[in-house]
Amino acid sequence: xxxxxxxxxxxxxxxxxxxxxxxxxxxxxxxxxxxxxxxxxxxxxxxxxxxxxxxxxxxxxxxxxxxxxxxxxxxxxxxxxxxxxxxxxxxxxxxxxxxxxxxxxxxxxxxxxxxxxxxxxxxxxxxxxxxxxxxxxxxxxxxxxxxxxxxxxxxxxxxxxxxxxxxxxxxxxxxxxxxxxxxxxxxxxxxxxxxxxxxxxxxxxxxxxxxxxxxxxxxxxxxxxxxxxxxxxxxxxxxxxxxxxxxxxxxxxxxxxxxxxxxxxxxxxxxxxxxxxxxxxxxxxxxxxxxxxxxxxxxxxxxxxxxxxxxxxxxxxxxxxxxxxxxxxxxxxxxxxxxxxxxxxxxxxxxxxxxxxxxxxxxxxxxxxxxxxxxxxxxxxxxxxxxxxxxxxxxxxxxxxxxxxxxxxxxxxxxxxxxxxxxxxxxxxxxxxxxxxxxxxxxxxxxxxxxxxxxxxxxxxxxxxxxxxxxxxxxxxxxxxxxxxxxxxxxxxxxxxxxxxxxxxxxxxxxxxxxxxxxxxxxxxxxxxxxxxxxxxxxxxxxxxxxxxxxxxxxxxxxxxxxxxxxxxxxxxxxxxxxxxxxxxxxxxxxxxxxxxxxxxxxxxxxxxxxxxxxxxxxxxxxxxxxxxxxxxxxxxxxxxxxxxxxxxxxxxxxxxxxxxxxxxxxxxxxxxxxxxx
Length: 678
Known about the structure:
There is one protein chain. By secondary structure, this protein is an alpha+beta fold. It has 4 domains: 1-113 and 259-372, 3-Layer(aba) Sandwich (Rossmann fold), CATH 3.40.50; 114-233, Beta Complex (Methionyl-trna Synthetase, domain 2), CATH 2.170.220.10; 382-566, Isoleucyl-tRNA Synthetase, Domain 1 (Orthogonal Bundle); 575-664, CATH 2.40.50.140. 42% of the residues lie in helices and 17% in strands. It is built from 20 helices and 25 strands. A 5-stranded antiparallel beta sheet has the order 19-18-17-20-23. Helix 1 (23-42) packs across helix 11.
């Protein structure tokens, strides 16, 4: 017998705050979660939708070190970029907070301490790599070396990103510290472990027997882990960025990010409402985790074990995880910039949030990995949003304005065809609700679009523009029904396309509807005045798509060049040799192309020493007028040589990008010509 629930608590995976969010995140987690939350709200149900940024862990610490900033600087920057992207795409969180909040630090510390005091952890001492030069233990990501499987020289201590194999730091050949470059040594360290093996029996029953309704990809991955046997998992690590382990003798140790992050769901709820325990501790709350497949084990096995060990929390009722979305046939990769970033998408497609939401839902990787292509994006916009949904709404609006002055006409006697259309319309509601309740959002969207198709077919078959010449009564009935369908479209698309739904409500001059009204054919009373007709969507042209495809091709080319570029460091020089170079700053007074030389530019430089001429091979990358007036760096004491009959008295310094392009080296601030570069 299924449980009765009085409220629904929805969490979505906390995005990692070391970069922006991309279409894979949106398709896999946030649009599905938002669709469900909006659907429940429309039904008038009690629901909370919790989100936030995951801001601890080694990659953030590494990024901060590489950029010469603090980890807090890194997470501050990306937390606000991520939060803004979600707001722009209408992801309707009740709260979007972060794991660096004071509330989270206290909640995570208290959670750990309760488990510790109950004796739920196992304490273990093990050997871990230690950097004697940096005087710190090294997390797995702080260790690099040669992969024993594929020979990649830059594998990490937890994974080789070349072949994808999971590794242990001890697997690496010739390990080195990513901090100092020195060879690390093994040194004993103490940590606390959650003994997952202790929870294996009840987890098997709870998942494999009590939750057979879970999605096959979720159930299958859990079964695989449980069949292999669970092992204790460390909940602490040696690191200076994170929630400190709140017990004596744990100085220099923080909570492992996998333990810390899911507690963020709880701390964010606490931050939102003083009534938080009702949502996390009462059995009539339905807890749902929306995640990607890489987080299935953490949310179905590890986090439930944590909650069970604590003793007062409810367990998730369902974890409707999605698979991965690929991009143009290739795995999305943030490190290779192979992604469509949400903030960049809105720069290129302003006002088209719903187009992306629609395409990602229609293409959702619900049971297997799926692929996003720009051609499919264009086709779905032009052939479905424009030609089906937008076309019907616009035709119904325009015809009502043309024949009834923009007011809903009186509905007369219904014909058998009218009744058949409305019956088909009503049947869609039952199918749609079934799909939504079972987290099959791709199928639900298809049914919603079918309602638009019903409307288009109805107008095409009845031809009210022809009937208006002879039978205004029948025309009135047809357009009344068409506008009732339009009003229903505002309801049915609200979970999927919130911006467009709001626009439809604006067109029909209605502020809001409830889900219970979906299917009614009297939503707009006779005489109700409509606002002027406007297009909901616009066609996307080939050249717009070609620019996006070219952007990806350029990214792929740059990645290939980077991967194959072998510019090893040159042999060391003694300091005295370096000091022989006289590098100075000059200002470009004149610049012109050298005749019959495609690559050469001739510079006249104010060098603070009376002036000089320098030739440089930059004509492919700069127009001469671009450089006039700019300050550049040059070698002043290079022996002059004649090129194309012109004496060049030095060398302009430039940086070469991975694609071979050159860029002049310039001082960051104005200095006097002739100033030395030291």
